[in-house]
Hints:
Strand content: 15-25%
Strand order of the largest sheet: 6-7-8-3-9-10-12-11
Largest sheet: 8 strands, mixed
Oligomer: single chain
Radius of gyration: 20 Å
Amino acid sequence: MLKVDNITVTFKTDEGIFKAIDDVSFHINRGEIVGLVGESGCGKSVTALSILRLIPLPAGRIEKGKILFKSKDLLKLSAGEIRKIRGKAISMIFQEPAAALSPLHRIGKQMVETFLFHKNIPRKKAWNIAETWLKKVGISDTEERMFAYPYQLSGGMQQRVMIAMALMLEPDLIVADEPTTALDATIQLQVFELIRKMRQSQTSILLITHDMGIVWEMCDRVIVMYASRIVEEGNLNDIFSKPAHPYTIGLLESIPKLACNIDRLKTINGYVPSPFKYPSGCYFRNRCPHAFDQCKKEKPKFVNLGKGHKAACFLL
Length: 316
């Protein structure tokens, strides 16, 4: 369904130019849910925005690589061609709904316009479909909410509107950037049930999250990012039962466990390096308890551990 091939994205700022994602490659199969995890600032959201060519210009730039969607390179499409794909074939649930929704237009108008742009159906029918989807994501009083402006809704309601807009056209690929952060547990469960149902029509999902519990419940494969690079990739069981990269091991060891009798959770020492001052060689070496001389000199290459499980580390 999707193949991201050696993508590098840079941003030009007053402090200089830095790489937000560095030589990133991965794929998503049809009907598959892939989790993308890592600390804040590692490049997860930039990766998601790159797929839909939403990197802000002129500061941001995709320096190299290919993004193949159904064998078509999205980076070579015209502005008009990519607009036809956004929302219909590939939709995105943004991390900040308040920034993604227009403050000047009512919720109903925004949802209906999305429908009418991609499908030739009567406006009344589009309105009814939009209202039905608001009910599906747990919004009550839908007739009233359709006439509301975004500022009149809570953050959780705005998030649910974004989810409804992303799902209602039944796209081939959904890019979900922290889709349930602002939602309570009950609504989260409803939303994830909707996403699971989308798989029945072979919809693929890229799920970006910090919550490893959600990854365990929802995903087939997991991609781990650190400081602009992918450091490990594998199926769900391999990542959770046989993590290979020290960073992945650190992430999993920091998760609270019910049967664990300890006073303090384990942590990863240090901080994520500034994108303007990434260390030479392995970017994780300053925080890694196993780092040695080679880690300073060379960028580690991926080691194939079998059955699609791979990690970039000199210890393997």
